[in-house]
Amino acid sequence: MAAWVICRNKTKWSAAIYFTFIASMIIPFQVVMLPLISTFRRAGDFIGIPMLFSVQGIVFAYLGFGGAMTVFILNGFIKGVPYDLEEAASIDGCAPEQIFFKIIFPLLTPVITTVTILNGMWIWNDYLLPSLMLGRAGDIKTLPIAVQAFVGSFVKQWDLILTAALLAILPMIILFLIAQKQIMEGMIEGAVKG
User: How many structural domains is the chain composed of?
Assistant: First the structure.
């Protein structure tokens, strides 16, 4: 819905918010690593919910970092949707929420599917953010961190490393093979239109 509001409101603020989303995609993650950890530590102390070494913290971080690509792709698709559809619905008495949920949202289904798959694959394979937020020695581990646990200081268990790596990538390969058509359709439909 943020992409729709940003795309349809032609104000300086909507342009500034859109470019903020784009900037968060352009700035490398390594630049924001340390400020992210200190911000999450302070936020956890302020609200009383631990944001580091917890599931809710990593979920919150992924929602924030995944939102930029989502808004970018959905914004590109919404630019291609004729504004006349929304005007006709408005003339017929639809509220802005009804216009979005009854007209725009059904059109976004293939693009939302693509964005969900791409974000899911990124989260599944990500190593750096979980190792910062959860720690490598913590109780909560993602698959890439668990695979890394087989690498010791003096011993590397290559048979277990390769088996775990294969089991970690197998679901993503199967998902991509099943959803390849939807991913390509969504990327083509969500491409930036001039």
Answer: 1
CATH number of residue 30's parent domain? 1.10.3720.10
Phi, psi of 121 (to 5 degrees): -65, -40
pLDDT digits (tens, 9 = 90+) for 86-95: 999 999 999 9
Residue 153, both tokens: 């200081």
Residue matched to tokens 């924030």: 64
Taking only the tens place, the pLDDT of each residue in 118-159 is 899 899 989 999 999 988 777 888 888 888 888 877 878 888
Domain annotation covers residue 107: yes
Checking phi first, is residue 157 left (phi over 0); if not, alpha (psi -120 to 50) or beta?
Answer: beta
**What's the chain's Rg over C-alpha atoms?**
20
Q: Answer whether residue 101 is part of any domain.
A: yes
* 84 burial type by CB count under 10 A (0-12 exposed, 13-18 middle, 19+ buried): exposed
Whether 176 is in a domain gets the answer yes
> In angstroms, rounded to a whole number, what is the distance separating the alpha carbons of residues 71 and 115?
9
Answer whether residue 194 is part of any domain.
no
pLDDT at 183 over 80: no
